[in-house]
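Slack export, channel: ligand-projects

TW: morning all. Re-posting the request from yesterday since it got buried. We need the structure predicted with the small molecule present, not the apo form. The ligand is flavin mononucleotide; the SMILES is in the block with the sequence. No rush, but it would help planning for next week.
GE: picking it up
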Amino acid sequence: MTEEQLSPAQPEESIDALTALATTRTIRRYTSDPIPKEDLGRILWHATRAPSGSNRQPVRYLVLTDGRKATEAKHLLGEAFRRGWSAKVRGDGYDSGSGLDPASPKARQARAMQEYVDNFERIPVVVLVCLVRYREPNPYEGASVYPACQNLLLAARALGYGGALTMWHQGVDEELHQLLEIPDDVALSACITLGRPRGGHGPVRRRPLKDVVFDDTWGEMASWVDDPDGTRYASGGPT
Ligand SMILES: Cc1cc2nc3c(=O)[nH]c(=O)nc-3n(C[C@H](O)[C@H](O)[C@H](O)COP(=O)(O)O)c2cc1C
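GE: finished. pasting the full token output, ligand included:
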């Protein structure tokens, strides 16, 4: 993977689908540039190309930019994100162990997160991705929403923007329903922040393919898979 492929796409520069898949990662630092409505429309159109069960298309996108209610909602969200992050700092030990070494990846990640939540209200675009429920809440209902979320992030990347899919809106779910007049049968499935990336960002890091692909039987390593040269790794999750 070349350095070029790792950096955010420039406006008007097109990247092929596999490069977008290989390089789209969470972007939490943005410039203050607004996203022109035309680009926002294109991003959302590509999100709506995603599949849903029986093509019911239960996803709605509530876009918050700089309107009166949007500003109020962003403030509510900012407070919730700051609370969410400070709970994670304590819960995941960002303020202990290797997190105390300012040069450690953990400390770097913590600084980026702190900056993200501190500047939440200045993020150019926030999209609440909503599910219009057509049956009782169930563990699989997200299956018709999250393909659209990923399409949205990939389209943003292709147009030179970056985003983060987050869940910290849950702390103010009720308040958002009330403020934005969202019906009770509509679930807020994700909160996606978007903007023009500020600074560079590193490569996507994941577990090796051999750890996660089984052949024929659970736990049987698939000998025929291999990561391409230059793949970067990160551990995490179940072993
Ligand atoms: C279901 C889901 C929930 C997430 N929730 C949050 C969140 O609440 N806050 C946040 O900052 N990032 C959130 N993320 C982003 C992940 O932290 C991020 O994708 C992951 O650490 C991998 O980093 P990368 O995308 O840069 O490779 C979430 C991602 C997913 C898919």
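GE: first-pass observations. The helical segments are 3-6, 17-23, 37-47, 68-91, 105-118, 146-158, 173-179, 209-212. The beta strands are 59-64, 125-132, 162-166, 186-195, 205-206, 232-233.
TW: perfect, thank you
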